[in-house]
Amino acid sequence: MPFKLFCKRHGVMLAVVLLFVVVSGRLLYFTYGPLISGNTPFYYSLSPGQTTYDVAVALESHGYLHHRRYFLWLARLTGYNHKLKVGYYSFQPGDSAWRILHKIAYGQADKHSITLVDGWSLNQVLQVVVSDPRLEHSPIVLSPQALCHALGLPANASLEGMFWPDTYAIYPGYSDLLLLQRAHRLMENNLQILWAGRAPNLPYRSAYDALIMASLLQKETASTIERHLMAGVLINRLNLGMRLQVDPTVIYALRSNYDGHLTRDDLKVDSPYNTYRYKGLPPTPIALPGLDALMAALHPSITNYLYFVARGDGLHTFSSTLTEQNAAVTQYLKNKQ
Fold it and tell me: What is the pTM of this model?
């Protein structure tokens, strides 16, 4: 068949096929080809209420997307436009339109979290949550009275030690107030559960007293085993009406005046937190106690020990008599020389 006649008879069909191939190729390339270019990821925070249109606008404004309608068409065709998950996403160089939609539909967001560390003071907790740029910030957190009210506590309550130390997942729109409310609720719930299973005959008037004791143990030693022994010592002292004489309470009383070394004069500071000067527990916790410290406070070792002194290696020597204690102190001083 002559070429001109073939073209005349089949030209329209060839044009349609060619157009189909070109359009299909473009669509396939747009769908599965690299959309994110360059060498650095593109970060996007998907908040509640946002749609694939918002994602498309963000990609377009940063020069990654030149045909918004194709992106929205692909979202509708795959059904991903109804499955978006809130989160903070990083789209890597080479990611395609399909890959981007797949990520936000299946919640493959970057994991963001904030950790409240056991042993932290209230000031450390507030400093972290107030200064974190990933959180929405509420003026309530900056007012002790307003924060107490938001947590369901009396306006003059102490917030020291009232937050559960843990790692908390956060997402766009999460506020510092919401984080603190969550951490406080966990502390209250966990404390009540632990209190219900406490050992008998403990000299605590309430679960709050146990929280205070746990904070002393948290700051006094990092050893889980020693915390139970130390709890036994401090409870023996409480039962005998002896002063607790715990160094971290003096450090807490000194606040910014503490220079890293306790002196004899420091031990005389007039503060209800100075357990060298005043009998009984201090009025509030001095730090966030962790689970180990709370368990030690509520399940102390049964012991005759009344004294302990640091050995210089992070652990302590425990003694039942003052003579033994003095010998341990002498040995400690020799080891320091």
Answer: 0.73
